[in-house]
Amino acid sequence: MIRSLAFASVIAVTTGSAVAGDDYAASVEKVRAERLQTLKAPDGWLSLIGLEWLQPGVNRIGSATDNDIVLKAGPAHLGTITLDEAGSATLELAKGSGALVDGRDVQRATLVDDGGTGRKATEVRFGSANFFVIAREGKKALRVKDENADSRAHFVGLDYFPIDPSWRVVADWVPFDPPHELEIGNVLGGIDKEKVPGKAVFVRDGHTFELYPIQEEPDSLFFVFADRTSGKETYGAARFLDTALAKDGKLVLDFNEARNPPCAFTPYATCPLAPPENRLDVRVTAGEKKYAGGHG
Predict the structure, then answer these.
(1) N or C: which end of the chain has fewer CB within 10 A?
(2) Rounded distance, CA 54 to CA 15, Å?
(3) Which helix (H) or strand (E) holds 38?
(4) If we measure between CA atoms, which residue out of 127, 204, 184, 168 comes closest to residue 2?
(5) Beta carbons within 10 angstroms of residue 281's beta carbon
(6) Between β-strands 108-111 and 89-93, what pairing exists: parallel, antiparallel or unpaired?
(7) Is residue 164 classed as helix, strand or coil in its secondary structure?
(8) What SS3 class is residue 19?
(9) Using one digit for the tens of pLDDT, what is the confidence trace for 40-82?
(10) What is the pTM of this model?
């Protein structure tokens, strides 16, 4: 699923009721503060230090250079991960590694991956760092995190366009029955085919625009979009936006809550790209700007 490729977000969506003035600004600032807290968390996206692809057979892992997978943190020789023909990954820890598997002191364990759907994967923790197995494009990789990562320690903060109530758009919701299929590319070069329950249609400056969401949660919609600020003021690949479900044929798109994908902050994420259908021919001067920390 798309969100599992990129971002397990805090869903903080606006409702269809009118919000104005100071109350509106405060509601947007609250969403932004929650987003910042999630991003900066010890296990947030800023803590990523590696995306290491497992090869079939035995993979020696550790921080020493003689390993098949050289980690940026942890003991010199952590152990081995064997990936069999069925795609099952088995961990064998080296003696004295000090690593814990889901909090348990064991020597051997089968590592459950995230399944590409965001399910809970087996965590292997060693000191301030940890990894778990992700499944992407028919392959398996280690997603490695460290709460002491430089990207977290030297985070320079988020930058936004000024809050603009005119970018809180009430769109018409056009449901699809049956759902349409949308192809969404990702930074790995793959294509995901996603079900789209409908489209949001809105008018801006006399022009009509459409956006297509996917639905991975029962009570919200998820948009991956780009616009004429992309690659200039904002991150080039896409920005993300969550909304509540449509009510009475209307859907609120609050672009002041638009945010960057994890790939804007780290080269170790696997983010979706905005599909052609969601590339808006307008400058969306609202929401999060390009990250000033250098990546993306």
Answers:
(1) N
(2) 43
(3) helix 21-40
(4) 184
(5) 8
(6) antiparallel
(7) coil
(8) coil
(9) 999 999 999 999 999 999 999 999 999 999 999 999 999 999 9
(10) 0.88
